[in-house]
Amino acid sequence: MAKGKRKVVREIVGGEVYEYVPLGKHIVSAKGVCGGRPTFKYTRVEVRHVLDLLAHGWTIEQIVRDFNRPEIHPEAIEEALRLAAKALERWSLEVGKAA
């Protein structure tokens, strides 16, 4: 597989086809879900929303308790943080090359 290319995964969920590109184990991008923005797998909960809650002082435990969904758990939130950090690092490298 070429660098930067990710394979589309197709699953049947709730009797319907669910197509997504895995960004990690728990974070996906699904064309038909939230405009393809990263979400927690099998949900419409956008990663950016959870990151915003963390930025506003929520703890991982508060988020898990408030959402009360099995897909949103500490390991998934920690993965979202790691992916966000990697994205920021890639972005800063691109900006550095352009400067």
Task: Detail the topology: elements first, then pairings.
Blueprint: E1 9-13, E2 16-22, E3 27-29, E4 39-40, H1 47-55, H2 60-67, H3 74-98
Antiparallel strand pairs: 1-2, 2-3, 3-4
Characteristics of this structure?
single chain, 99 residues, alpha+beta, Arc Repressor Mutant, subunit A, 4-stranded antiparallel sheet, 3 helices, 42% helix, flat
Structure characterization notes:
There is one protein chain. The protein is α+β, with helices and mostly antiparallel strands and 99 residues long. The protein has one domain: Arc Repressor Mutant, subunit A (Orthogonal Bundle). 42% of the residues lie in helices and 17% in strands. The protein has helices at residues 47-55, 60-67, 74-98; strands at residues 9-13, 16-22, 27-29, 39-40. A 4-stranded antiparallel β-sheet has the order 1-2-3-4. β1 (9-13) and β2 (16-22) form a beta hairpin. The protein is flat and about 50 Å long. The model has no long low-confidence stretch (mean pLDDT 92).
